[in-house]
Design a protein that fits this description.
mainly alpha, Growth Hormone, Chain: A, 2 domains, 2 strands
Length: about 400
């Protein structure tokens, strides 16, 4: 891969995740300030991205891969997305805002797969080259959070305007990206194939089924963090909360480097256990933390994001890849994403909204009770996983399970 191509792909990843990080983290805070939204309404808005995650495989599998060059479709989607992000700043009602976010999410989520496809098409050694390209996405998310904190705009519509502007830039840039023609032009497809249902063969392996159920359930605590961590930190009085939250992405970038060394040394089960235990610790830290003597607990809850995400979800993708084998690995990854960031996050987003509303006291919330709820759920999932998951020393491929 040429240096200029690598630089262009790195810029693509940087902008791709800068857009997401610009509005997603602080949307709940913005909705509470501008739209006077309830917890349920905030949870509903976050569930829109989960709905889009469940639908995007159809866009990629049944449309993009058969009819359109990836870079051109990505350019169109980001330009349309820029218009929707800007229109979100003009909305004053929660119902209309939800539909704007839903339609925008339906445009944005397919671009993640498209950007990956464009990058992979230019690589002769994806295993070594892709991480160095993808890390610029994490950097983009971090820079977006830093800018929001530095400019003190997390409660304002400027976050969406910033995202809209960068989305427009990425939309135009996309037309200059390397040509990535449709890979399955003329091939037959189906809804079940797009969903990855052929990977259900993996459920014949009892341990994988236990893991798969745990992965869906652990997304309920995950939704609490994505939807309400910034709302919580702002309400607690933490200065530059959005800027402080980028420590979670920094932690994620650091811990992901440890996974290749630990995956075969301590085993899948122990890594997943560490990840789930970290979810419980994070929410206990949030529950008992404050901006006074226990400020360190708030920082601990943020920094634990790296262990929470990497040790469960990144490890989970690797475990899925390992057990699926070559024949159904793509379908397995699609099904795993559909179930976790789609179904699991949708359930979690709605449930977290109800919990936050239930513990509202006047203009504030009983955050201890709010955070102990996902802590208890994560602990229950952890116990279930420890009791029923059995790790095999040699994991069979899907055609042998």
């Amino acid at each position: 891969m040429k240096t200029t191509t690598g630089a262009l792909l790195s810029l693509m990843m940087f902008l791709e995740y800068f857009v997401w990080g610009s509005w997603y983290v602080t949307m709940g805070t913005y909705m509470g300030e501008r739209l006077q939204s309830t917890g349920v309404q905030i949870g509903a808005a976050y569930s829109a991205l989960a709905v889009a995650t469940m639908i995007s495989p159809f866009v990629i599998g049944m449309v993009a891969d058969r009819f359109f060059a990836a870079q051109k479709l990505m350019g169109i989607l980001h330009l349309l997305g820029a218009a929707l992000l800007y229109s979100a700043t003009l909305v004053n009602g929660n119902t209309v805002f939800y539909w704007v976010i839903l339609f925008y999410s339906l445009l944005y989520m397919p671009t993640i797969a498209l950007s990956n496809s464009i990058a992979f098409s230019q690589m002769n050694d994806p295993g070594k080259q892709f991480p160095w390209i993808r890390v610029f996405g994490t950097i983009g998310w971090i820079v977006a959070g830093w800018l929001i904190g530095y400019l003190s705009i997390e409660k304002t519509s400027h976050t969406f305007m910033m995202a809209a502007g960068v989305s427009a830039v990425l939309g135009l840039l996309s037309f200059t990206l390397p040509d990535t023609p449709p890979k399955d032009r003329g091939a037959s497809t189906s809804i079940s194939k797009a969903l990855g249902t052929e990977a259900v063969i993996l459920f014949r392996n009892r341990s994988y089924l236990v893991f798969f159920i745990a992965a869906i359930l652990i997304c309920i605590p995950l939704a609490f963090y994505y939807g309400f961590a910034n709302v919580f930190l702002v309400e607690k009085g933490m200065e530059n909360a959005a800027g402080k939250m980028i420590m979670g992405q920094m932690s994620e970038a650091i811990f992901i480097l440890a996974i290749p060394f630990l995956f075969n040394r301590i085993g899948v089960k122990n890594m997943l256990i560490i990840g789930m235990a970290a979810w419980t610790l994070r929410y206990v830290a949030f529950g008992y933390g404050d901006t006074g003597a226990h400020l360190w607990m708030l920082y601990a809850g943020i920094v634990l994001h790296g262990i929470c995400y990497d040790f469960f979800f990144v490890t989970g993708y690797m475990y899925t890849e390992k057990i699926a084998g070559e024949k159904v690995k793509n379908a397995a990854q699609g099904l795993f994403t559909f179930a976790t960031y789609g179904l699991g996050m949708m359930i979690g987003s709605w449930f977290s909204g109800f919990v936050v509303d239930n513990f509202k006291t006047g203009e504030t919330h009983d955050w201890l009770k709010v955070w102990l709820t996902p802590a208890a759920i994560a602990l229950a999932v952890l116990i279930y996983f420890i009791l029923f998951f059995r790790e095999k020393k040699s994991v069979p491929a899907a055609n042998n399970v």
